[in-house]
Design a protein that fits this description.
Number of helices: 8
Pfam family, one: NosL
Number of domains: 2
Protein name: Copper chaperone NosL
Strand content: 15-25%
Keywords: Membrane, Transmembrane, Transmembrane helix
CATH class of the largest domain: Mainly Alpha
Order of helices and strands: HEEEHHHEEHEEHEEEEHEH
Shape: rod-shaped
Length: 344
């Protein structure tokens, strides 16, 4: 799995360290307004304590039978500081280890923490607002005083607002950062990676294509594999190294023949313009297997040659012809290349 990008690591690290602030600021607040309290009352919930107008609120709640709010009724205060510490450490480790699986796990843990916290707060509010004392001075049949989980709610002549405070917004910011990092890592970077891969593939394809084109356009003769290659004209396997011939077109395409006559006939059958061909080569009779240019070759025609397809024309390089045993070819007729083309 690919490591987390440095930008993502920095974002996760900063957002995680920001949780340190939650030890010094409240997480949540509940505000109350009523005509007799025009400036409002507020109760703030911290990681390990309560603050604000808690005692005044307790005094008011006494009239409707609600329990006395005190820190001892919240066992969460003993756990929250450690829980936040865990999230700080986990976030830092995620950034240091660059591990994408840890990033996803961090996101899941944050979502889980948010869900559990809201449920726990709702459960406390439900019990607090419904379990009223029978000795309450004011009783309203069927009336419950559960505070709102998030938002506004009217409780008798009070208006109650429940919302995150600074520490709560730090948690929200952490969640937003983690979500953005996940989107960045698993969507944008993957998209860029796919795009880069496509570009690389296109470049590679272009290089290969150019190479193929270049190779296809290379004009050079090709060694004849005697005993394996077949004559392009008669389809017989090329065996005799004294009479084979080869054509190379201007596009680098190679055609091989087992007899000079086959090559000439192939040229005529396919109306190949000699001037448009890159190479026309034929075996040197005195140096079997060696290819020489037909334009410089010396040709001898004789039934005694007995070439594979009985074209019976042998080619010699000027050098080999000069040293050849002329007595062997006393019955042969010397031909030019033009005359060789004419007789087939």
């Amino acid at each position: 799995m690919k490591p987390i990008h440095n930008i993502s690591r920095a974002s996760i690290a900063v957002a995680s360290l920001a949780l340190i602030a939650t030890y010094f600021v409240p997480l949540w607040r509940i505000d109350l307004w009523a005509p007799q309290y025009p400036e409002g009352l507020v109760m703030k919930i911290w990681l390990s304590k309560l603050s604000g107008d808690v005692e005044i609120i307790n005094g008011l709640n006494h009239y409707i039978g609600m329990a006395h709010i005190k820190e001892e009724m919240f066992p969460e205060f003993k756990l929250l500081p450690y829980a936040v510490g865990f999230y700080i450490v986990f976030g830092i480790l995620t950034a240091l280890l660059k591990n994408r699986k840890m990033l996803v796990s961090y996101f899941i843990l944050i979502v889980l923490a948010g869900v559990v916290a809201l449920y726990d707060f709702w459960k406390w509010g439900y019990e607090y607002g419904h379990n009223l004392s029978d000795d309450a001075p004011i009783k309203v049949p069927g009336m419950a005083y559960q505070p709102p989980l998030i938002g506004y709610k009217e409780l008798l002549n009070f208006g109650a607002y429940s919302m995150p405070d600074v520490g709560g917004w730090v948690f929200v910011a952490l969640g937003v950062v983690v979500v953005m990092v996940i989107i960045y890592e698993f969507y944008f970077l993957e998209k860029i990676f796919v795009k880069k891969t496509a570009i690389k593939s296109a470049i590679l394809w272009a290089i290969i294509s150019l190479g193929t084109i270049s190779q296809s356009c290379t004009q050079t003769t090709e060694p004849i594999r005697y005993g394996k290659d077949a004559c392009e004209f008669c389809k017989m396997t090329i065996v005799d190294k004294r009479y084979a011939a080869e054509i190379v077109t201007d596009k680098g395409k190679v055609f091989k023949f087992d007899d000079l006559s086959c090559m000439v006939k192939y040229m005529k059958a396919n109306k190949l313009n000699e001037s448009a061909l890159a190479f026309l080569v034929v075996n040197d009779y005195s140096a079997p297997g060696e290819l020489i240019d037909v334009k410089t070759a010396v040709f001898l025609s004789s039934k005694d040659f007995r070439s594979p397809m009985r074209g019976d024309v042998a080619a010699f390089s000027p050098k080999s012809f000069a040293t050849a045993n002329k007595a062997e070819f006393t019955q042969a007729k010397m031909l030019t290349w033009k005359e060789v083309v004419a007789i087939f």
